[in-house]
Amino acid sequence: MDNNQPIGIFDSGIGGTSIWREIHHLLPNEKTIYLADSKNAPYGQKSKEEIIALSMKNTDLLLKMNCKLIVVACNTATTNAIRELRAKYDIPFIGIEPAIKPAATNSKTQTIGILATQGTLISELFNKTAKQFQSTKIIDQIGHGLVPLIESGKMISPEMTQLLHSYLTPMINANIDYLVLGCSHYPYLIPQIKEILPEHIQIIDSGEAVAKQTRNLLKEKVGFTTEKNGKAIFYTNANPTVLRGILQNKYDVIEKDF
Ligand code: DGL
């Protein structure tokens, strides 16, 4: 089964490019189309209804662009809207959720930290998953302000350092040995997070797992491309310079109103 249509990926902004990187690395021949809905970022403070409506808007555009499957490269959109997306559209969806399972299963201190958006942490889906690991203490923290700083090009800034210290210090004091990054923007903060965390605390994100899931779905249901060196196209509806910067000016970034 061959399928030369592109893979569609969307996020509230530039963060999902951390997931796109993993997909592009694992499946370099696949064409990818990425939508950064930066105009509407952050999704993390919006209501479930708003997140569903925005996710549907992004999906409609990716479908118009003939995508064969859609990766919701946003924990907030996945935990609030994936059920509704799957109910409305025929196309397969892959979502991203905070990787509680590997952290809880491997934690020796039985205490893990999760940094995610408010929308993710209050969602039904997240709380349902968290309940399965009741013997593990979960220290959750809303990453207030982190996404807006990343979206406005202030990823490395005194404000960011200060916020990260204030969010991570209580987790260190609570003796976590795993930190789960529950937002696709946060992997870009790993170098700064590592400077704050003691070395024994492991950091986990879900990017590689999502890429492997994408490969499985292509293999089992959707089909791989027969082409080589898949082109990656990025669309954004705000701040193209920040997206170009995070992609090191290596890929086509198109400004579009959506
Ligand atoms: N990158 C997104 C996530 O994974 C959303 C961040 C936001 O827009 O608040 O949750």
From TrEMBL:
GO terms for biological process: cell wall organization; peptidoglycan biosynthetic process; regulation of cell shape. Pathway: Cell wall biogenesis; peptidoglycan biosynthesis. It catalyses: L-glutamate = D-glutamate. Keywords: Cell shape, Cell wall biogenesis/degradation, Isomerase, Peptidoglycan synthesis. It is an enzyme of class 5 (isomerase). GO terms for molecular function: glutamate racemase activity. Its EC number is 5.1.1.3. It holds the Pfam family Asp_Glu_race. The active site is at residues 74, 183. It comes from the Bacteria. Substrate binds at residues 11-12, 43-44, 75-76. Transmembrane segments: none annotated. The keyword Transcription does not apply. Belongs to the aspartate/glutamate racemases family. HAMAP family: Glu_racemase. Provides the (R)-glutamate required for cell wall biosynthesis. This is Glutamate racemase. It comes from Flavobacterium frigoris. The gene is murI.
